Target: CRISPR-associated protein Cas6 C-terminal domain-containing protein
Amino acid sequence: MYLVHFKTMSILPLLHHRLRAEFVVETDLNLPEFKGIIWNRVFNQNLKQVICPFHHKRCQDCFLLSRCDYPKLLNNNTNPVLIKPPLIKDKKLERGKLFSADFILLPAAFKSLAYLLLALQRMGKIGIGENFQELGQFNLRHLSYWKNGNWQLLFTDEQGLFDHLPEAFLPQLPSSPITQLTIHLVTPLRLKHQGNVYQFSFNEFIHAIEQRIFNIKMVFPLPSKSRINTTVEELRWQKFSYYSSYQGCEISQGGLMGTVTWQGDLTPYLPWLQAGELLQIGHLIKFGLGWFELEF
Model:
């Protein structure tokens, strides 16, 4: 049982756009089981190529820094572009295989949709591969947006970008009280305190969401007190590794995976929990970590 205390804060709606890109493999892809790190790195590299006129210049040394979209889109604190990496576990994707990746765009990032689209097309042509070797190519077939419970086309390879652009929307709160919910950790979750990865609890989970929302300067109200019980906890530590071109070697990391179920007066926390579900929490968000889904 955890006793959680927060200050009451004013509410600000969490507007966002949810997009889904669907791809088809052109030449065989060889990827790690967890694809978030390599996927996000290659996307970021190609995003810089389509935005930046000085590809090999450091952003902090550039006279266009204050006017350039690239550093704003990849801001490590706000992360206005959130990439939900492909979840397929297959390490080899053969020619003709379909796969998808989702994107969450906060309103500040949506005006740069054309850049994001060009980056996705370019990364498919350049290719991607484990440890940046044996690059396989793929093609962007569709880009869709979520509206009224359905995916609606925004771009196709044959027709290009459609004229109509989606409006940002808000997460919907349930009409009845919630007394139990389950968290499904979709990608590894790393919660740190003073440099150490600490134990999982409702208290730390909400504080991680609080910090994430604070970073993007959006706040929601919370009750002064709430008693929350953990009824089911099925968590495991999942290790993964990735190649660091900066260090020239494999880097080992890890994070929590699994499910946890809580009971109590959870309804007042739903705006926060839904915000965390949308924005991802913890460390290495830019690599796709900290993605969870709610079930209630």
The helical segments are 36-51, 69-73, 107-110, 113-126, 202-215, 270-279. DSSP finds six helices and 15 strands in the chain. The chain has two domains: 2-14+171-295, 17-161. The radius of gyration is 20 Å.
